[in-house]
Amino acid sequence: MTQETSSRDKTLVNVGTIGPPGSGKTMLIAAILQQQAQSNLAQAVSYDAIQKGDIDSFEYETANRHYTHFDYDGAGGSMTDLIDNVAQLDGVILVVSVSEGVMQQTRQQVRLARQLGVGSLIVFFNKCDAFDDDVLNMVEMQVRELLTKETFDGANVPVIRGAAQSALGGDAAWQQSIDQLLGALDSRIPDPAVRAEAVPATPHKKFEGDVYLLNREEGGQRGTFTADDRPQLYISSTSVRGTVKFPDGVTMAMPGDHITLTIELDTPVAIAAQLPFAVFAADDDDDDGDDSDDDSDDLDDAQIIGVGIVTTILS
Ligand SMILES: Nc1nc2c(ncn2[C@@H]2O[C@H](COP(=O)(O)OP(=O)(O)O)[C@@H](O)[C@H]2O)c(=O)[nH]1
Ligand SMILES: [Mg+2]
């Protein structure tokens, strides 16, 4: 890029795309890169190249900002990716395809974003090329209702009507939707304050956490969650089994509940207050002999139960 001098002074902003598989996240990244490449503000990467999955973040600039863009694929395991670096995100782009509308993964990811403290959320409403205004209005209303329900400012969240594939294909009208999206990122995501120094994480086994149990619509469990469950926790990029203790007088919790849990991990993990984590149903039939606890592969097909934040380290 030939922007070296000016780019040095640009504000660094991290964003991520969430949204169900097939909603158009990869196409959107390709379209943004192509668009900004025309003004020398990015290097274009083809849809096929992005699709290979070897690149985990993408860089582009606007007049005053340098964006680093992460893609979260929306499949079960990628929730763990979002948990891993949500603390670095300044804003999230939720991609909703008009053809599918609000899906279970949409609900789950919005809930997760909320629980994990994502402040700025912008909706890219994709595949608008294929539908008329009546449909767009109806689906947009569902999206705003969902956001309101999840305590985002549903009425005022920017919903950009776009078509990533058409923009990528060179359709000037839809390329404008990419400009609108970038404009919304610039204006709606506040300049990041100086990032707080991360509290050094040291190995601990026991902590208290605030947990939200996802309901069925969000892809959570059907039944109750009790102290007899020994769930699989995903925390600090580690998958580890744990024992849970409920608050005094509480014996179980239902999907949709918020609960304070005391969690004791089977093995110590480097953790600190404010760290996000996810709770999965343990797969007791897992006898593949893979005891590795330093990756999330074993959680790809696991049933997610809840998402939480460490509040207090106990021991
Ligand atoms: N009609 C229409 N289809 C689109 C558009 N963007 C993406 N698609 C379709 O949706 C499919 C999935 O897109 P992709 O970006 O791979 O979705 P991802 O799984 O969210 O990354 C693509 O193969 C396209 O066929 C669009 O703007 N309009
Ligand atoms: Mg994709």
Could you explain how this protein is built, in words?
The chain is α/β, with parallel strands linked by helices and 315 residues long. The protein is built from 8 helices and 14 strands. The chain has a 6-stranded mixed sheet, with helices on both faces. A 6-stranded antiparallel β-barrel has the order 7-12-10-9-13-14. The site of magnesium ion (MG) has 3 residues, from helix 2. The site of magnesium ion has 3 residues, from helix 2.
What attributes does this structure have?
alpha/beta; six-stranded mixed sheet; 8 helices; 30% strand; disordered N terminus; binds guanosine-5'-diphosphate; binds magnesium ion
Question: Short description, anyone?
Answer:
The chain is an alpha/beta fold and 315 residues long. The protein has helices spanning 4-7, 25-37, 47-51, 78-85, 104-115, 133-149, 164-168, 172-188, and strands spanning 11-18, 57-61, 65-71, 91-97, 120-126, 159-161, 202-213, 225-226, 232-235, 238-245, 252-253, 258-271, 276-280, 304-313.
Q: Which H/E pattern describes the elements?
A: HEHHEEHEHEHEHHEEEEEEEE
Global morphology: globular
Structural class: alpha/beta
Terminal CA distance reads 50 Å
Return the average pLDDT rounded to an integer: 89
* DSSP summary, beta strand count: 14
Q: Would you identify the regions where 5 or more consecutive residues have pLDDT less than 50? A: 1-5, 286-295
What is the number of helical segments per DSSP (H or I, 4+ residues)?
Answer: 8
Helix residue percentage: 25-40%
